[in-house]
Structures are given as C-alpha cells and as structure tokens.
C-alpha cells in the first residue's frame, strides 16, 4: 500500500477511456478504463481469451484490430493518431506473448536498427555497429544472455524462454516510457524468471511505467505491482493491489465473473 | 496501416523509364532468309557465319515455341519484330569522351555514369547500346594480359578462328526455339577469351540496354577460359518504359577448360510492365556453361528483378572430372510479372559437384517459379549436388512454385534438395513496427536477410547496385 501511495503522484502516462476494439468483426474489448502513471507497475490478469493481449496490441497499434469506440491518451496526446512505429518511437514498448521469428535477419542487426531508429526519434546519438556491440553485450550480461544470440536470426529457433528473454533485452535497449509486457513470464524456467524479473525491476523508474500481463502471482513476488487488474469479457472487472493477485491465486476467477455478470457492470474493488 | 505502406512500396514506379533519343538504324520488320542475309551483310560477316545463321533459321522454322513454362502471354508475332537496330554509326571512338552525350546521360540517369565506371578500379566496360557495341575500354590493359574482350562482331572480324571453334559448341544452333532464333539473327554481344594460365586482371562488365521501341534484342555472348584461366564477368541490364512488349532472346555460352574458372554475374532490371501488367520485356534467355576440363568451375549468379516474363535457366554441363557448377539466384517478381527460372546441372564426369541456391521473392499478383534439373549421368561416379530453393511471399495475391527434377543414373551420387516458403506477414511487420521500424525498412531488412547468401556471391559494386535495385538499404552491421 505504501509503495502505491509513493508512486501514484507521478503524472499520467497512459489514459484509456471507454476503449472498444474488434478483430475480424468480433468485438473483443468492450469498454476498457485504465489510467497508468509514471513510476507505476500494473499487473493485468484474467482468464484465457478475455482480451489481455488484445488490449496490449491495440495500444501498440496492431493493424488487424479496429478501435470502435473510446480514446487513448499517451502523455496527453491522442495515441491513435500515431502509426505503430511512431508509438514505439514515442516510448511505447510491447513485449510479445508470442514473439515473431524473422529468418535471415540477425538479432544484432535488428536490435541496432530498432535502437538507432528510436534514438534518432529522440534526438539522441545513434551507434555504429562496433559501439552498439559493446552496448548490447553490456545489456545482455544483465539478463544473463549468451552473446551468441546476437549472431542468430531474430527469434528463429529460440526456445520459448529464450524468446521472452530476447523481448526483455529489447526493452532494456529501447528504454521505453511505457512497457507492456504480455506474459513475459510464461515459458521461463525458475532461474530465468528470476533473471528476467530482475531485469524488469532494474527498469523500474520514476518516469517509466510497466504493465505486466500475467497468469501467475509468482511473477508478482519478484516484481511487486502497484495495481492488479482483472480483465474478463473485454472489461476490467476488478482492480486492487497486490493482494488481489494472491486472492485470485486462491479463488480463481469464477467468483469475479459471476459477480460481474450479476451486476452487469465492473465490480468495484 | 502497415499493409498500405507495404502496398506503396511495392508500387514504386520503374525509375529507369525513359527513352533516349538517339537516331537508330532499324531494319524493316519481319524475318526471312533475306533478313538474315541483310544482317550478315550489314555486319560484313564471313560466309561460315551466314551459313550458321541460315542453318539455325531453317531449324527454327521446324520448331514450336515452348509452352511448358509456368508463364502466360499472348502469341508473339515474330514477323512484327524488327531484327536489327543500331545507333547510327558516327565514327570509331578512341575514348569514352567521344561517346554520344545522350547515351552518357542515359547511363547517368541509371546511376551508372561511365566516368564513375571508369574510375571504379579495374572495371572494363563494353557498353552495348541496343545491338551494337559503342565503345570498349581498358582494352589495352586487357590486351597486355592477352585477354580478348570485345564485341562479338569485332571478334568475328579479328579472331574468326576462335569464334568459329567455340560458337554454338555449348548451345548448338538448334538447341531450343529461342536459341535457334538467336543463332539466326543475333546482332551483337560480347566475346571474351582468357588464354591459358591468365587470371583476368579486372572484372569484365557489360551493360545492356534495350532502347529502340519494338526492336527485338538478340545478344550473343561467348566466354572462353583456357587451361588455368580465371575470369569474372558482370552483366547488367535495364530498359526504358514502353507499352508494347519487347522480346529478348539472348544466348550466353561459357567454356571452361582444365582448371579454369568462370564467374558470371547478372543484375537484370528490365521494364516489367506497369502495375496492371501492360508492357514489359519478354526475356527468353539460354545461358549455358560447359565445364569441359578437369577441375574447372563455372558459377552463375543472377539477380532478376525485371521483365514481364522471364524464362531463363543458366546451366552447367559438368563434363570434366572434378568440375564444379554453381547457381546462385534471386528472382523478384511483382505486380503481374511472371518468372520461370532456375538451372540445370548436368553431371557427366566423375566427382563433379554442383550447388544451387535459389531465392524467389513474389509480391503483388506475380508468379515466381523455380524450375531446376539435376541430372547425374551413368559415368558421374561420386557426383554431388546440393539444392536449396527458398520462396518468400509478400502479400496474399502472389504465387511461388518449385519444380525440381532429379534424374540419377549413378548409385554413388548424392543429391540433396531443400525447399522453404516463408511470408512477410502482417505480424512480422508489426513486430518491426513495435520496435520503431517502419514498414519499408522492415521489408528491406527481411528481404536483405533472405537474399544475403546470394548477394555475397556478387562482386561488391554489383551487390550494392543489386541491393538498390531491390529498393533496399544495406543491412548496417552485416552488409
Ligand atoms: N483474428 C481473430 N479472429 C477472431 N477472434 C480473435 C482473433 N484474434 C483474437 N481473437 C479472439 O479474441 C479473444 C481475446 O484474445 P486475447 O489474445 O486478447 O486473449 P488473452 O486475454 O490474451 O488470452 P490468453 O490469456 O490466452 O493469452 C479470444 O477469444 C480470441 O480468440
Ligand atoms: Mg494473451
């Protein structure tokens, strides 16, 4: 509770109001309300298929998703006015639940292009291949990643856990204002989870917010959230502090879903 | 959003679409023995060559256009084509400065200014404009090394015995429909002879350009590397934008004797037609190399980005023991382009080896087929082949096809074939976008990665040009 009080005086980074979104003609998000302030960590939980990844992708600008209602402000400006790559340059980072493989493109080249693109957008210095190599190896050390991953094609043949680590590496390199991490903990072994969580914790900063989508309270033992939200049926049906995650671990989601159904609206915390 | 950007990228108009106004000397349309006699006479050719042409023509009359390639096009009226066109000869040119300024501007627009080419260390350029060689550079330095590099017309005049010995020795006059046509009516092309033990002191380069509307192009190239000789030959093509289809039926013959090595690289960017498929070059080419001697090696590298229709199978006949054939290819098709390309590796001798790396990229509504034959003859004990055929699809409306033919008549041979198909999809592009990388750069990067294995085979300056041709930027830390 104390932590939450400490952090919430940050200014609002992300504000989602009445957001509805559809994919392939099916409405998935049915009125999301969410405010994220600088310095905060939010956890988003919820049953499979409830719309967690959809929310993350809509915020990052996936072209397959159509926003049908509502608005999203990022640092006060209309997020939907920006193309996906512009959102990334503005400081939004999406750590994918299922990172895409890109055969033939080396991780090193990909990471450097991403880094330099974002740096250029910030008016900061770009790095040549040698400088970047030093820089990226440093960041990899923090995540206990073998530099051999630099020479391999992006995510190609990476194990599930290796892909997730590569996502966190990208976050560590791009230093976003808002990181949306979609199930970054899934597929990680116990040691990897600790390392990755450590990496995320190092990224916690007063001017940065982190939104974690997760199914497991376990992750939240490592990364302590200020808020925990439950998404069900395309809405946030419950918001609480980290104790909510513990309660969900014990009770599952049914009690929330039934409550939400009965009330026909989100259940207040 | 990103798919629109992708669409825009794909629809970039042909940048080299302009027509140079140079007075051309065009033969009347139509094809007959008289046309052939006219060509032969205009070129002041010896009797044996006229005979070669006439034999080919008579054979051609008995042949039918091949219909097996996976391409569709309207019937070609061979009588509607003009078989000879040459820039009006002014006088013999002693230096590059005397080249028609209009022609020089053309090359400048293409980004291949002659003065730069000249400056490029060690690149000799035999400029072919339409059908006649306009100028040849570095001739002296090559002559000092004993290398002959000239137009085939000059070779016929100055080295008739060599031309007569090798012309048609790899691609006989009746080999196939288009090769027969070429043998009958070829107007010019390049001749290259590297004598025994000589390593050609520079890369030899020819830029082709089709200029006169509706004039067929029938280039004939002959490269001979004697025992222990080495040569790297570059061929680059680009053409202005026209509405009517232009036929191109070139023949390239390579001969490598014992321990000789020929590396033949092509970057081809002919007008492909507009985005509705109108216009564009029909490119029916016969390219074949004969590894005649032991330990000889012939390597084909091609980057095919143009033409409305490409029909082309640079091949190697591996006759000499331990000889090696290689084929590295990138074929990019877009809009309504059709490409049916690949290679033939004919293993005749013992312990012959071949390697095929083919990368097909299809976008728009195009159709890209790889067709390859690996044939291991009964005497080719210990022969080996490795083939890798990868296809990349951009968008949903295009097609990629692979037709591998494998014939093995010797049990000790090892033939391996691998094929993959991948797609630049929305999710890949979104992944790049979510890292700040715009669609155009993402496509560049993915394509660059895809073709890398082939592009590393190209001479440096050609690789740069080829990368530009694919509309890409070099991949920073890799390239
Ligand atoms: N292209 C599509 N066409 C139809 N339905 C889709 C499409 N993409 C996603 N959906 C549906 O949207 C719903 C929400 O999916 P989403 O991936 O957001 O769920 P999630 O909460 O992240 O689930 P999980 O916990 O399993 O990752 C699911 O029912 C899914 O099947
Ligand atoms: Mg999900």
**What is the strand content of chain B?**
25-35%
Average pLDDT taken over every residue of chain B: 80
Helical residues, percent of chain A: 40-55%
CATH homology superfamily of chain A: P-loop containing nucleotide triphosphate hydrolases
The number of helical segments of chain B is: 12
How is the biggest beta sheet of chain A arranged? 6 strands, mixed
User: How many domain modules of chain B?
Assistant: 1
Global mean pLDDT of chain A:
91
Care to describe what's here?
The complex is a heterodimer of chains A (269) and B (479). Chain A has helices at 2-7, 52-60, 84-90, 107-121, 129-142, 148-151, 160-174, 190-203, 217-222, 242-251, 254-263; strands spanning 12-23, 26-37, 41-45, 65-74, 77-78, 92-95, 102-106, 153-154, 178-182, 209-213, 227-232, 235-240. With 269 residues, chain A is α/β, with parallel strands linked by helices. Chain B has 12 helices and 23 strands. The two termini of chain B are 29 Å apart. At the A-B interface, helix 3, strand 7, helix 4 and helix 5 of A face helix 10 and helix 11 of B. The structure holds adenosine-5'-triphosphate (ATP) and magnesium ion. Residues 23-24, 26, 28, 46, 48-54, 97 of chain A line the site of adenosine-5'-triphosphate (ATP). Magnesium ion (MG) binds next to helix 2 of chain A.
């Amino acid at each position: 509770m104390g932590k939450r009080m400490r952090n919430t005086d940050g200014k609002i980074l992300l504000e989602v109001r009445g957001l509805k979104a559809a994919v392939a003609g099916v409405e998935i998000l049915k009125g999301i309300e969410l405010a994220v302030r600088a310095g905060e960590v939010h956890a988003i939980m919820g049953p499979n298929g409830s719309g967690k990844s959809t929310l993350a992708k809509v915020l990052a600008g996936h072209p397959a998703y159509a926003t049908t209602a509502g608005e999203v402000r990022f640092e006060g400006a209309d997020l939907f006015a920006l193309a996906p790559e512009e959102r990334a340059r503005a400081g939004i980072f999406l750590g994918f639940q299922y990172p895409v493989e890109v055969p033939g493109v080396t991780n090193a080249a990909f990471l450097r292009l991403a880094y330099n693109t974002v740096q250029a957008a910030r008016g900061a210095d770009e790095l040549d291949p040698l400088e970047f190599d030093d820089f990226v190896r440093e960041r990899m050390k923090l995540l206990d990643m073998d530099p051999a991953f630099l020479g391999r094609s992006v995510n190609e043949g990476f194990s599930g856990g290796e892909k997730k680590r590569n996502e966190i590496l990208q976050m560590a390199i791009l230093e976003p204002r808002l990181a949306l991490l979609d199930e970054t903990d899934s597929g990680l072994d116990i040691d990897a989870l600790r390392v990755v969580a450590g990496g995320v914790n190092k990224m916690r900063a007063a001017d940065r917010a982190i939104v974690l989508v997760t199914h497991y309270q376990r992750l939240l033992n490592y990364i302590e959230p200020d808020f925990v939200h439950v998404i069900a049926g395309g809405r946030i049906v419950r918001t609480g502090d980290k104790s909510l995650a513990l309660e969900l671990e014990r009770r599952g989601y049914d009690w929330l879903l039934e409550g939400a159904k009965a009330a026909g609206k989100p259940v207040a915390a | 959003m990103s798919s629109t950007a992708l669409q825009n990228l794909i629809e970039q108009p042909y940048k080299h679409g302009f027509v140079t106004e140079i007075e051309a000397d065009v033969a009347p349309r139509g094809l007959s023995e008289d046309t052939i006699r006219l060509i032969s006479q205009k070129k002041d050719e010896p009797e044996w060559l006229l005979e070669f042409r006439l034999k080919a023509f008579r054979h051609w009359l008995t042949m039918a256009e091949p219909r097996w390639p996976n391409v569709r096009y309207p019937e070609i009226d061979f009588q509607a084509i003009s078989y000879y066109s040459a820039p009006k000869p002014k006088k013999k040119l002693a230096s590059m400065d005397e080249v028609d300024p209009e022609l020089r501007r053309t090359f400048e627009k293409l980004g291949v200014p002659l003065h730069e080419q000249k400056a490029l260390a060690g690149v000799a350029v035999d400029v072919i404009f339409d059908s006649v060689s306009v100028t040849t550079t570095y001739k002296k330095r090559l002559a000092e090394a004993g290398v002959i590099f000239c137009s085939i017309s000059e070779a016929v005049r100055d080295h008739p015995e060599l031309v007569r010995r090798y012309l048609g020795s790899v691609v006989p006059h009746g080999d196939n429909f288009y090769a027969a046509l070429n043998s009958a009516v070829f107007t010019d092309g390049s001749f290259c002879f590297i004598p025994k033990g000589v390593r050609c002191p520079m890369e030899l380069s020819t830029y082709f350009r089709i200029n006169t509307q509706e004039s067929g192009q029938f280039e004939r190239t002959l490269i001979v590397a004697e025992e222990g000789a080495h040569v790297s030959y570059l061929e680059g093509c680009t053409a202005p934008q026209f509405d009517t289809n232009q036929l191109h039926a070139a023949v390239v013959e390579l001969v490598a004797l014992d321990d000789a090595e020929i590396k033949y690289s092509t970057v081809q960017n002919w007008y492909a037609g507009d985005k509705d498929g109108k216009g564009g070059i029909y490119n029916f080419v016969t390219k074949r190399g004969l590894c005649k001697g032991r330990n000889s090696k012939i390597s084909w590298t091609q980057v095919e980005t143009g033409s409305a229709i490409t029909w082309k199978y640079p091949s190697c006949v591996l006759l000499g023991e331990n000889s090696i054939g290689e084929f590295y290819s990138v074929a990019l098709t877009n809009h309504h382009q059709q490409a049916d390309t690949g290679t033939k590796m004919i293993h005749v001798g013992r312990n012959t080896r071949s390697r095929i790396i083919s990368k097909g990229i299809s976008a728009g509504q195009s159709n890209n087929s790889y067709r390859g034959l690996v044939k291991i003859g009964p005497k080719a004990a210990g022969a080996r082949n490795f083939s890798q055929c990868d296809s990349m699809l951009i968008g949903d409306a295009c097609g990629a096809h692979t037709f591998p033919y494998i014939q093995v008549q010797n049990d000790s041979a090892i033939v391996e074939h691998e094929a993959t198909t991948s797609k630049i999809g929305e999710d890949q592009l979104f992944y790049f976008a979510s890292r700040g990388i715009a669609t155009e750069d993402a496509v560049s990067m993915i394509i660059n990665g895809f073709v890398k294995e082939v592009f590393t085979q190209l001479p440096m300056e050609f690789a740069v040009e080829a990368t530009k041709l694919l509309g890409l930027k070099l991949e920073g830390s890799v390239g």
